[in-house]
């Protein structure tokens, strides 16, 4: 459907149907917030077990949201969860998800795999479909290098956990149209996020600034300046952050952390992003944080 934005008289396509490609940690959260906002959502994943896991985690998180909103009313809780989950369909076939207003890609963080997916989507999707990537660190222009609809393409970078974190970074590739950009901003707002805009620069706003902070925290621990507990308590109580830097690294995953720092180093040459021995070793040893049961801390 078409709605009109009278403030600048650009016509905006209101997003009613969304496909999320990649139903992992981020994709399931993105699907959830869109369904909660009343949009019809399709999740596509190569692996049936990822789709099963996504459906379960969405169900759990919808229940959390509903219990908070309708504390004393089990009927309303059930109705809210059912209504939102009924708007979500899942499939392993990309063809089942192409006929929509917006596609958000949240697959593995690899340039070649993302490019292949976007080239395919560009061929299969109707003219009006907007394509977006949730990449943490790869260049939006490089991801979209092979597509024709460069005016209907950009970055929509969410934060983990998606249902809780209030920010969405809207990334402008070099060829994005004003209409696509405005539609993305309006969509972000419709799913409950505050949107900020950034050019296609390494790490965009948040990861570019979190990177040096995280790297220096790892080096501080590596040097033995303070214990891991004291580094984390320091930043929680002294800078009012919800998690300390080492806890956050465990939460995000040390592999992701390492990858983001690596891309930032390659793209900026800033020595602050140089490889950190401790991080390299922990990743090589499979100590990736919460997801593997051990990182800086142990999780049972
Ligand atoms: N889904 C839905 N709701 C969730 C949730 C999830 N996965 N995890 C937590 N919540 C909700 C809880 O229900 C709770 O809600 P209320 O306060 O409304 O009751 C609220 O969030 C707080 O949760 P908890 O009390 O369980 O725990 P907490 O207070 O320790 O908060 C946290 C958990 C929200 C994760 C918080 O610790 C936090 O904000 N940590 C920092 C996260 C962060 O910085 N993320 C960005 C990482 S960088 C990134 O994502 C970019 C990238 O490209 C890598
Ligand atoms: P994840 O591993 O939890 O999920 C990725 C999912 O994509 C898996 O279920 C996998 O089966 C599926 N997949 C892989 N290749 C596919 C393909 N070609 N087609 C369909 N499905 C495919 O990963 P995640 O943490 O959700 O990250 C996804 C994206 O979001 C990455 O680009 C990552 O950089 C970005 N991101 C991650 C975070 C974070 O904190 N984890 C934050 C912001 C952005």
TrEMBL record:
Q: Which PROSITE patterns match?
A: 3HCDH
* Recorded metabolic or biological pathway in which this protein acts: Lipid metabolism; fatty acid beta-oxidation
Task: Provide this UniProt record's keywords sorted from A to Z.
Answer: Fatty acid metabolism, Lipid metabolism, Mitochondrion, NAD, Oxidoreductase
Q: Which GO cellular component term is one of those annotated? A: mitochondrial matrix
| Residue ranges constituting the 3-hydroxyacyl-CoA dehydrogenase NAD binding domain according to the UniProt record | 17-201
Which annotated residues bind NAD(+)? Answer: 22-27, 45, 109, 114, 136, 160, 291
Q: Name one Pfam family in it.
A: 3HCDH
Q: What EC number(s) does its UniProt record assign?
A: 1.1.1.35
- For this entry, the protein name equals 3-hydroxyacyl-CoA dehydrogenase
